[in-house]
Amino acid sequence: MSSTSSTRTLFGHLTGIVAIASLVSLILLYFWTPPVTNCPPRLPQFKQLSDGHHEDKNNSIAEEKVEKPVLLLWVWPQNYRFELSDCKSIYNIDGCHLTDDRALYNSSDAVLVFHRAISQDLSTLPPSPRPSFQKWIWLNVESPTNTQKIPGIENLFNLTLSYREDADIPVRLRLTRNKTPNEDFTIPKKDKLVCWIVSNNLDWTGVGTRNTYYNELKKYITVHMFGSAYAKRLADEDYYPTIASCKFYLSFENSIHKDYITEKFNGPLSAGTVPVVLGPPRKNYERFAPRDSFIHVDDFPDAKSLAEYLTQLDRDEDAYRRYFNWRRHFSARPHLIVQNQEFVLSICTACDHVAKHKEYQEAHDIYEWFFN
């Protein structure tokens, strides 16, 4: 056989082998698909919304509404009622579903119980056993002097709501720092030197200290009295204007306890009047307000010395105005109502706490904490 024929024969064999290999490859590709390790992400499925946008079924642009925790107000404090929507409109608090509907007890995340509404036989408490997830909140804005111990409730409550700064839920209307210095504050027009509004003057409430001081002070300076204890009760709408018309206001607490600094102090601050305070030590007040925003009775050896100082400030306008220098840096917000005003803020503060703190908390001895 010639070399040319041999070459042709070899080429033919190679061509056949290539053809067979190609055919086998095609068959394998047809019947077997290897796993894909780097697939592109699955395209989202959309549906048309009425506003022309598209909604991703897997990751909707419309946020799912988060269910709010339920706070049940077991009883209205001293039967004082307000619109439940006030927490949103007044304090911009809207984190919980606030209700007084006891039918929602078993589904309520927390129950707010007013101390003075608890009967001695405990029959006015919510039913037990409570749901395992539920927290009970003890609401008491009175001082220990004016708080009656009720046996059997010491270890019932998970949370305390009080004026005390070390409460689980401290409640207080606080000064706010101005973002920029305020140069526009104007001291209201004054036509009275010293004023005092008193609605309760019963000895059993612990007012003996403030009454003693007042009776001594009035010997040396005129005090304009308002309120049902000494004079005619003021209408709510006259409360702040009356305080604003006085250069000084007697912010005398009915009893002296740590952190027991009430609206009697915040009222004149917000109205543009200098508070003259009788209560816990000056250092305690300075936790909540600048030291030069008020006058403390403890700064003077006796009531006569205080009266002389107030009379001196009445004659020295520049010295008096220095008690308002803090207004450049802070603002004082008044309570929006007068009677039982602390209850609105307390209830709304509880709502805010329940919304922000979902964790469970063990019950603890409220009396050991509050009375000691």
TrEMBL record:
Entry-linked InterPro entries: Glyco_tran_10_C, Glyco_tran_10_N, Glyco_trans_10, GT10-like_C_sf
Residue ranges annotated for the Fucosyltransferase N-terminal domain, each copy included: 67-172
Subcellular location as annotated: Golgi apparatus, Golgi stack membrane; Golgi apparatus, trans-Golgi network membrane
GO molecular function terms listed in the Swiss-Prot or TrEMBL record: 4-galactosyl-N-acetylglucosaminide 3-alpha-L-fucosyltransferase activity
GO biological process, one term: lipid metabolic process
UniProt keyword annotations, A-Z: Disulfide bond, Glycoprotein, Glycosyltransferase, Golgi apparatus, Lipid metabolism, Membrane, Signal-anchor, Transferase, Transmembrane, Transmembrane helix
Catalytic activity: a neolactoside nLc4Cer + GDP-beta-L-fucose = a neolactoside III(3)-alpha-Fuc-nLc4Cer + GDP + H(+); beta-D-Gal-(1->4)-beta-D-GlcNAc-(1->3)-beta-D-Gal-(1->4)-D-Glc + GDP-beta-L-fucose = beta-D-Gal-(1->4)-[alpha-L-Fuc-(1->3)]-beta-D-GlcNAc-(1->3)-beta-D-Gal-(1->4)-D-Glc + GDP + H(+); an alpha-Neu5Ac-(2->3)-beta-D-Gal-(1->4)-beta-D-GlcNAc-(1->3)-beta-D-Gal-(1->4)-beta-D-GlcNAc derivative + GDP-beta-L-fucose = an alpha-Neu5Ac-(2->3)-beta-D-Gal-(1->4)-beta-D-GlcNAc-(1->3)-beta-D-Gal-(1->4)-[alpha-L-Fuc-(1->3)]-beta-D-GlcNAc derivative + GDP + H(+); an alpha-L-Fuc-(1->2)-beta-D-Gal-(1->4)-beta-D-GlcNAc derivative + GDP-beta-L-fucose = an alpha-L-Fuc-(1->2)-beta-D-Gal-(1->4)-[alpha-L-Fuc-(1->3)]-beta-D-GlcNAc derivative + GDP + H(+)
Transmembrane segments: 12-32
Superkingdom of the source species: Eukaryota
Complexes and interactors: Homodimer.
Protein name: Fucosyltransferase
Protein species of origin: Triplophysa tibetana
